[in-house]
Amino acid sequence: MSFRLILVAATTTGLAVPAIATPGVELAQATPAKPAPQAPKPVTRATVIQDLDTTFKAVDTNHDGVLDKNEMAAAQTAALQQRTAREQQRAGAEFTKLDTNKDGQLSKAEFLAALQPVRARETPDQMVAQLDANKDGKVSVEEYRAPRLAGFDKLDANHDGTVSPQEIQAARKK
User: Fold this and answer.
1) What is the spatial distance between Cα 68 and Cα 61, in angstroms, rounded to a whole number?
2) Distance, C-alpha 2 to centroid of its chain
3) pLDDT by position in tens, the chain (length 174)
4) Are 47 and 11 in contact (CB under 8 A)?
5) Are 27 and 80 in contact (CB under 8 A)?
6) Cβ atoms 28, 8 nearer than 8 A
7) Assessment of whether the complete model's pTM goes beyond 0.70
8) 60, 90, 102, 128: which sits with the fewest CB atoms below 10 Å from its CB?
């Protein structure tokens, strides 16, 4: 199992920078969350180094100047606990928002009310304009087939009329 560990320190300018990158799990900020971010400000290399060193020192609990597996594990565990707490808080707030009758349970109606409406990506006029090759305001069966068949023909590298799994795989690599 491969994980990615990134300890994040808040810089003195308010930007978060990666403090440590080693195998592990993405970890949370070392400092409390700030209010809504404003426009990014310039950050100097010296500031980044200072923030990295601060985070390193926080993880180096035995103060020997190196991070061992136990210190990394402890930092990872703490960050995962923080992230879990934030996610539970976010989910709880979302639940409370959906629970419109405040009975501590979500009915099917309350749950479905939160769904975003399904909308068309294009108007019928846009669809006709896109497919109507001869611009007569109508879409013939040939015009309707043309875009999909062009895609099929592109995938059918050996032009045998069949798209094989190998041709699909080759197209994904492109």
Assistant:
1) 10
2) 18
3) 333 444 444 444 444 444 444 334 444 444 445 567 688 888 899 999 999 999 999 999 999 999 999 999 999 999 999 999 999 999 999 999 999 999 999 999 999 998 988 889 999 999 999 999 999 999 999 999 999 999 999 999 999 999 999 999 999 998
4) yes
5) yes
6) yes
7) no
8) 102
Distance CA(92)–CA(34), nearest Å, equals 21
- Which residue stretches of 99-164 are H helix? 108-113, 124-131, 141-155
Task: Give 3-state DSSP helix, strand, coil % of the chain, rounded to 5.
Answer: 50, 10, 40
C-alpha span between 91 and 106 (Å, rounded): 13
